[in-house]
Design goal:
4 helices, 93 residues, globular, single chain, mainly alpha
Amino acid sequence: MALLGGDAARTLLLAPMPCLQISEDEAILLGLWRDFSLENAANARATLALLAKDDSVGPIAKAMGAATRRLVAAGFDMSALAAGTMTHQESPK
């Protein structure tokens, strides 16, 4: 995340912690984690290419892939990030 934050093409905007609605950038990050959990590195790299400097895409992808593998090895169920498995709730406006 430090690489992505430091070498991003633009500043990533994250919603404040008490906010019930995620920001667009947070949705993109969740999509990246989903792609890595589904071992779809090509899709993740394509997304990263839109977010980070060219020479940072590889190191960021490697770090996120390794983190995903370690989370799975530690018992985290990453399949919940797959499309169609999560429910959402609209925040009140």
